[in-house]
Design a protein that fits this description.
This protein has about 140 residues and is of the alpha+beta class. Helix content is about 20%, strand content about 40%. The protein has helices spanning about 10-15, 20-25, 55-70; strands spanning about 5, 30-35, 35-40, 80-85, 95-105, 110-120, 120-135. A 7-stranded antiparallel beta sheet has the order 1-2-3-5-6-7-4, covered by helices on one side. Helix 1 (about 10-15) runs antiparallel to helix 3. The protein starts with a strand and ends in a 12-residue tail after the last strand.
Length: about 140
C-alpha cells in the first residue's frame, strides 16, 4: 500500500493532530496510507510498571493509536468496535517501539486491522482491531478512537 509522510491534510492526520492522549505520550505518526499506518513511541519511566517493564496499557494504547490511524486513513470517521492484544515480549524504559498497522479486510461499515508492535526486529505485541464507520453526528457509544 502506498504510504505518505505525516505532512498531508488527510483524515488520519487530522484525527491524530487532535489526539492529545497519544501526543502527550510522545507518539509520532511516521506514515499513513490507504488502510495502513506506521507510528513510533519511546518507552518512558512513567510507562514502566512495578516489574520494571512497559505497562501493557501503554503498549495497547500505542497499538490502538496505529489502528485508529490506519482505519481512518481514507475516511469516513471510524471507531473501534473491539480489539485484542497478545503480549509477546516485554519492552523496557528507553526502548523505541514501532507500530505497523495494516488493514486485513473491510466489509460494509466494518473492518479488521492487524498491528505489530516492534522493538527493532523483535515483536513486542500483536494487536487485532475491529472497526466500525460512524455517520456524522452519531454518538460513539462503543468508545475507541
Amino acid at each position: 500500500m502506498a504510504e505518505t509522510a505525516d505532512t498531508g491534510p488527510g483524515p488520519a492526520q487530522a484525527m491524530f493532530a487532535a489526539d492529545a492522549a497519544s501526543k502527550g505520550l510522545g507518539i509520532e505518526l511516521l506514515a499513513v496510507g490507504d488502510g495502513s499506518a506506521r507510528l513510533r513511541m519511546t518507552v518512558t519511566a512513567a510507562m514502566v510498571n512495578g516489574h520494571g517493564i512497559a505497562h501493557g496499557g501503554f503498549v495497547f494504547l500505542f497499538a490502538d493509536t496505529a489502528f485508529a490511524c490506519a482505519c481512518n486513513s481514507r475516511g469516513p470517521k471510524t471507531v473501534a468496535s473491539g480489539a485484542d492484544i497478545t503480549f509477546v515480549t516485554p519492552a523496557h524504559e528507553g526502548d523505541e517501539l514501532l507500530a505497523v498497522a495494516e488493514e486485513r479486510t473491510r466489509f460494509g461499515r466494518s473492518g479488521l486491522y492487524d498491528v505489530t508492535v516492534l522493538r527493532g526486529e523483535t515483536v513486542v505485541a500483536e494487536f487485532r482491531g475491529r472497526s466500525r464507520s460512524i455517520r456524522d453526528g452519531a454518538s460513539n457509544a462503543g468508545g475507541g478512537e
